[in-house]
């Protein structure tokens, strides 16, 4: 853990002139650097579909770029420890039909508003921007192929989780409340999102030449994006995103 | 590229298959049908308070009846649809949802207005949302207001957070109905409502339309026998200081007014906020002409005007409506406008 901390520390400083003043000798000499640019494709979704979601009629990934700066430290001839600092957009748009789905229409000042179970069409747009610190070990399978496994921690820089419900009805308070027809009602849960996220990182990379590499990565969120006390979306949602990227060794 | 897509799809929809439909958790009585010949007005299902309100002809009350019910899909009701019920003792229906988990008990109430004199001395409180409503002298709930709709916007659960409530500052310091125009809130603004006009009316609130078309949710009127002559009562009115348009902008040239009126029309279907003043079913009107400020209780005595009205049929309904903002159905008015009404009376 000490090593990892140091690595991140170096990483944070490496682009600044401070670096020149710190004598890191051997350790620094072994470090190499890489930039990876790519796209996230995935969903902010439950791990298993609850039975209140009846049909997904539309899904589209958002334009979700990812740009990261990585430092790599060889632990062994086959093993490399990698840590990075990365900006990740994670977004999608989905339209689904739900039945008896617990939600709420909430006022801007955060006071709880009209809560109940909704049956009808839900349309959600997610577009979150995270500052991510991925840390993983790479195992070289061959001169071209390598596998990655590790984890990530992320901080939400810019949240967006909004949408509308339409063509249905909400039952005031729950399943036994009176039925209120909904033509169209907006919701915006952006400021309810958790600021922190963490999860597992897995991937496979292919070396294209001396400097270039292609990477396919999976970032599997383990942290519910909303706190469990939030009742607007009563199913746990996670960031489940894959990344297709191109790396360049500096 | 295609392979990558498959790779992504594979993890995305891991466990992502659509599950079998959940068992229906709903337990509503959706319709309650009784032969028209037994009714003096259409059946009202008050879903917010789990009540079936029947306006029966006297022989139906004596002999009982066999209503035909429809309930939420898959739910079971006891007593069953088509079973006879009698009113010698309280009648309830229990609906059990298809899921088996949820039960809803509806109480059947026979609504009769014996005397058309309303002094607003007896009040009840709705248990879940804590808004007040008046009972008539026989303990029947014949009055409603916009309060059930405003309850859905998440206002504080206390009587004075709602536009219509009781006051002890009535005529001769008895209780009376106080109707106040309040500021809208963030939830109501989602549906474009920036103020809550206070209202009190004979009839019921139909939650179905509370968000899509709020004026249609206020269903006006109770069955009436005969042709009334006059509408009398007392009122006191203080308009709020700043008149605002529907979009929230200030209108400096206008002062808020109150409105109080009684309308006799051909039932059994109820008129609502969208057509109570314009319907061709209207037989007679008694409208308060002067809706301006009245610092002390002022008596009104308005004859019903039958000119130009429809011919009275056999199922007449009478609506009494009072609002603290005369153009409240268009969400125009002044926040703080306060109307107090007491001793309302229909003179036959």
Q: What is the topological layout?
A:
The complex is a heterodimer of chains A (250) and B (348).
Chain A: H1 2-13, H2 18-21, H3 25-30, E1 32-45, E2 53-61, E3 65-74, E4 79-105, E5 114-140, E6 145-158, E7 161-172, E8 179-188, E9 196-207, E10 212-221, E11 238-249
Antiparallel strand pairs in A: 1-3, 1-11, 2-4, 3-4, 4-5, 5-6, 5-7, 6-9, 7-8, 9-10, 10-11
Chain B: H1 2-12, E1 29-33, E2 39-46, E3 51-56, H2 58-63, E4 68-71, E5 76-78, E6 91-96, E7 103-110, E8 117-118, E9 122-125, E10 132-135, E11 143-145, H3 147-151, E12 164-167, E13 176-180, E14 182-183, H4 186-190, E15 195-196, E16 199-205, H5 214-217, E17 218-220, E18 222-224, E19 230-238, E20 243-244, E21 259-266, E22 271-272, E23 282-287, E24 294-303, E25 316-323, E26 333-334, E27 338-347
Parallel strand pairs in B: 3-7
Antiparallel strand pairs in B: 1-4, 2-3, 5-6, 6-7, 8-27, 9-10, 11-16, 12-13, 13-27, 14-15, 16-17, 16-25, 17-22, 18-25, 19-24, 19-27, 20-26, 21-23, 21-25
Keywords:
heterodimer, A: 250 residues, mainly beta, eight-stranded antiparallel barrel, 3 helices, 11 strands, 9% helix, B: 348 residues, Immunoglobulin-like, Jelly Rolls, 2 domains, six-stranded antiparallel β-sheet, 5 helices, 27 strands, globular, disordered N terminus
């Amino acid at each position: 853990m000490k090593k990892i901390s140091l690595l991140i520390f170096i990483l944070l400083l490496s682009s600044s002139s401070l670096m020149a003043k710190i004598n890191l000798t051997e350790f620094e000499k072994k470090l190499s650097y890489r930039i990876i640019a790519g796209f996230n494709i995935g969903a902010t979704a439950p791990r298993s579909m609850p039975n209140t979601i009846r049909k997904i009629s539309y899904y589209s990934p958002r334009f979700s770029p990812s740009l990261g700066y990585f430092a790599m430290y060889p632990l062994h001839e086959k093993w490399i420890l990698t840590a990075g600092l990365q900006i990740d957009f994670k977004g999608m748009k989905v339209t689904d039909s739900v039945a008896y789905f617990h939600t709420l229409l909430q006022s801007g000042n955060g006071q709880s508003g009209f809560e109940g179970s909704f049956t009808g069409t839900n349309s959600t747009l997610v577009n979150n921007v995270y500052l991510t610190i991925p840390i993983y070990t790479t195992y070289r399978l061959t001169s071209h192929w390598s596998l990655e496994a590790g984890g990530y921690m992320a901080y939400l820089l810019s949240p967006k989780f909004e949408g509308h419900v339409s063509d249905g009805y909400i039952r005031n308070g729950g399943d036994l409340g009176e039925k209120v027809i909904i033509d169209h009602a907006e919701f915006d849960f952006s400021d309810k999102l958790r600021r922190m996220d963490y999860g597992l990182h897995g991937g496979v990379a292919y070396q294209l030449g001396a400097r270039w590499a292609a990477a396919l990565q999976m970032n599997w969120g383990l942290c519910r994006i909303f706190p469990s006390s939030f009742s607007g979306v009563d199913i746990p949602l996670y960031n489940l995103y894959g990344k297709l990227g191109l790396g360049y060794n500096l | 590229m295609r392979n990558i897509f498959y790779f992504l799809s594979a993890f995305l929809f891991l466990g992502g298959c659509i599950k079998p439909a959940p068992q229906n958790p709903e337990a509503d009585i959706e319709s309650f049908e009784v032969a028209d010949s037994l009714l003096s007005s259409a059946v009202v299902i008050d879903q917010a308070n789990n009540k079936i309100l029947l306006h029966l002809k006297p022989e139906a009350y004596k002999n009982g009846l066999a209503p035909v019910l429809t309930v939420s899909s898959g739910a079971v009701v006891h007593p069953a649809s088509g079973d006879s019920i009698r009113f010698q003792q309280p009648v309830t229906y229990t609906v059990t949802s298809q899921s088996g988990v949820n039960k809803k008990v509806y109480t059947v109430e026979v609504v009769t207005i014996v005397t058309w004199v309303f002094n607003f001395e007896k009040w009840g409180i709705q248990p879940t949302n804590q808004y007040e409503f008046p009972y008539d002298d026989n303990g029947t709930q014949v009055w409603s207001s916009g309060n059930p709709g405003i309850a859905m916007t998440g206002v504080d659960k206390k009587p004075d957070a709602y536009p219509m409530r009781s006051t002890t500052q009535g005529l001769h310091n008895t209780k009376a109905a106080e109707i106040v125009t309040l500021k809208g809130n963030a939830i109501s603004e989602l549906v474009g409502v920036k103020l809550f006009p206070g209202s009190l009316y004979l009839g019921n609130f139909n939650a179905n339309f509370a968000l899509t078309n709020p004026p249609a949710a206020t269903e006006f009127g109770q069955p009436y026998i005969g042709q009334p002559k006059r509408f009398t009562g007392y009122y006191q009115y203080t308009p709020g200081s700043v008149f605002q348009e529907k979009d929230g902008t200030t209108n400096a040239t206008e002062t808020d007014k109150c409105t109080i009126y009684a309308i006799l029309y051909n039932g059994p279907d109820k008129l609502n906020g969208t057509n109570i003043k314009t319907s061709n079913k209207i037989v007679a009107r008694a409208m308060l002409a002067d809706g301006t400020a009245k610092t002390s209780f002022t008596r009104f005595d308005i004859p019903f005007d039958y000119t130009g009205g429809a011919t009275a049929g056999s199922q007449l309904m009478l609506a009494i409506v009072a609002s603290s903002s005369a153009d409240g159905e268009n969400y125009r008015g002044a926040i703080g406008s306060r109307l107090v009404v007491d001793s309302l009376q229909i003179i036959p």
